Amino acid sequence: MQYEPFEEKLMYEWVKSQESASRVGEKTTVVCLQMHNGYEVIGSSSCVNPGDYDFEIGTFYATKDALRKIKEIVGYVNQSQLNK
Predict the structure, then answer these.
(1) What is the CA radius of gyration of the chain?
(2) What one-character DSSP code corresponds to residue 49?
């Protein structure tokens, strides 16, 4: 599994660290990414069948979910800078 180039760029430029990745319940993974300014973004992923649960896959998709949210924040920041 690989992140898209824009996701890798977000990780490099905007994310300071992955604070945690945890299994929640039987089939959900939650990830917390901390941005350089200390703001924390939570991502999650779930599977349908608990028997199919895989922590690595769950962490990958939960991270992608958090990065999608960071992309929206970065878009807001960029737009705000253009309108100054």
Answers:
(1) 14
(2) S
